[in-house]
Structures
1.
Amino acid sequence: MAITLRPLHLTDIDDFMSWAADEKAARFCSWEPYQDKSEAIEFINNQVLSHPWYRAICVDDRPVGAISVMPNTAARDRCRGELGYVLGSKFWGKGIGTAAVKLVAERIFVEWPELERLEALVDVENLASQRVLEKTGFQREGVLRKYGVLKGKTRDYVMFSFLSTDLQS
């Protein structure tokens, strides 16, 4: 099983729908599960294709999820970016998410040399995602109480970080 990252294309729409319509996968995401392809195509055209760093998580070149890094645009915050990822639930527990996060941590600091810190905010109830980050060397920094609203409810988040210097360790 080869786990790779590559740009997501419109031709991947059927694979995209397999995780984007997955209620379990979308539980801790800001979006609701997609119901039809036209909304998904619009999202890919308007958000994914212009995103600075959005990749499909692939198993044997077939997209099974997505991972992204969003840079901070404010001058004082350019040293950090935010990691986000989603994986279709039928691929959970197989090491795929861990491998994908590790690939990003190994690449993003080379591709974006101004970046020194990669952050991830994880819902306190999303224990599996917290474990993925811990296995890839992210440091748990603390709980941010009442930090954001997810699907109409105020949530607590755990802040994780990975520094460019962590690669040398």
Note: The helical segments are 13-20, 23-26, 37-48, 96-111, 127-135.
2.
Amino acid sequence: MELIKHCLDECWETLKQVADPEIPVLSVVDLGMIRGVELNEEDQIIVRLTPTYSGCPATDLLKAEITQAFTVQGLVPVQVVVDLSEVWTTDWMSESGKQKLQQYGIAPPQGEAHSCGTHVALSDGIKCPRCHSQHTKLLSEFSSTACKALYRCQQCLEPFDYFKCI
């Protein structure tokens, strides 16, 4: 039993090294995309991955990068299973991940996602990740990706992305 726990701990540590292709300062663990790691009856490692949305174009890339990271660590055989049984939500993001987002210059989600799966209504006053002012203005509900909105800080005058609650 201790050997299984050690193996699973190694799996989680390895997953913390797999970066999100869009926001490389975040791992798949930071984003809450890993819904479970287990060993099956054949001692195969099963990683359950829930992409940030069902049509995510990076899903195959993430599966390959997870498989490669496990192979490099000698954690084989491994199978990455896409798990769409629940819809990914920003509520699954780790607090550490939210802090990394802010340090990267993207305002992290503020508040909890609605239970219906829609994002929290956008408004002015999202905290600027650079100067921390809340004197900010929504410029566009969509930014570089659909999951981000574009804001401008009225204090430091810098534009910034806000990772919407989803």
Note: Helices lie at 2-15, 59-72, 95-104.
3.
Amino acid sequence: MNLQTLHVQSTSGGSTTISGRGRVQLLRLYPGKLPDLDVMFWCGDKPKVLKHDHATSPPALFQYCGRQDSLGIIFPDWSFWGWGELSIEPWKNMLARLIESNKKIKWKSRVPYAYWKGNPAVSTNREELMMCNVSDKHEWNARLYSQNWFKEKMQGFKDSKLEDQCTHRYKIYVEGRGWSVSNKYILSCDSMTLLIKPRYYDFYMRSMVPMQHYWPISSKNKCRDIKFAVEWGNSHPDKAQAIGKAGSRFIQENLKMENIYAYMYHSLREYANLLKFKPEIPEGRAEICPELIASQEGGLWRKFMLGSMVKSPSNTLPCTMPSPLDPSALKALFERNENITTQVTMWEQEYWENLPPDHH
């Protein structure tokens, strides 16, 4: 396969080189196994194609995340091959570090509060979360830290290593401008993830089940929900620990790099089956390969590109993908998750109703 005409629309956070890193690796892993394709890819944090803009024949656009009111083909993001800008190593290395980090502090010996560290300035959602921090007036059971990326970069990110942040019993996931790549790192800590209801989803999030892999948090009542979740977890440590462990296990088992490449492979093959024209190389287009991308990048981007390089072709084809869910099965899945979330909301309401006024 040659991704012969790869059109990439990029935001300030994306470029042809960054977004294409994984796809050129895929070609080395399965050489000649994929047909020629003409692909358009959107690198932004939010979906580009919305349903209300396209009653019929929407453009086929690959992107990192989806939303209920959007259209598009969801694809793994660049961070699986490293994020040089933030000194985050390729996912295979990063996951190994997180697994080792989990062994350092047993769950019941961890700090019994909810932890989050990041840039709150990118969204109202995160700014609201920061209001749940501990203060002389409130104890919402949260320990929240604002990330100064410029300062961290100047210090070599020594105070923001992801593998050093598995120290609390609970960790919070909250979206930024849109979808955030942080979800997989947070879930890998063995901590019970408090997942603030997201608007966006990536290629794996909707397979996760509330109260099995994470604890659902309302986007409207963040502070009260976080306080209750931590109180519940500290009162039911074995159950909370099991949720945290199940979330980590889901990530470790499902987000192996061979599974990431398999997902990419099958997505592109299914897409190719729908093409009604024969892709051709546009005049003046240059051929790209991993070595060329690495030579054009410097610093950590180059290091991570070389470190995640596919060294040889796979001897076997990727695993077989399960059949897609029909509309009724998909609806049942969403309803199950919503019912579980509703049950948690009822527990919380009962908790607050029975709490003495001076404890509110």
Note: Confidence is low (pLDDT under 50) at residues 1-16.
4.
Amino acid sequence: MVSLKNIVPAAQNNINTQFILLEKDRPSKEGQEKACLALVADETASVHFHLWGTECDTFEPGDIIRLTNGIFSYHRNNLILRAGKRGKAEKVGEFTMVFVETPNMSEIRWVPDPNNSNKLVQESVISPFSRIFPPQI
């Protein structure tokens, strides 16, 4: 299992990880399917997680989710973690998991690696606060 702080944008379904769902946005329509964005985290980082179709109703805040063969890539100009077509997200527990909310891996600017154009590296943090899930005051 990979920690969220170690995920890197790629067009491959190869991320196996586990996290807790912290917040979930209202579902919206994307084509014929329902979709919603969630904020998830583990003990190393947080990331925006894209829920698709029945996943929007299946998972709730506090659920611990295991993602198998996930993908971390751009979807409509947002860098998100998702199950994709070949991945699988399943609930494996609830409420008891250590987590941190920063850094948010979806809010880091990634650029091509100068030593390997097939890889991306972190350049900078776009914002210290989530633009999609603002801090609760």
Note: Helices lie at 55-58.
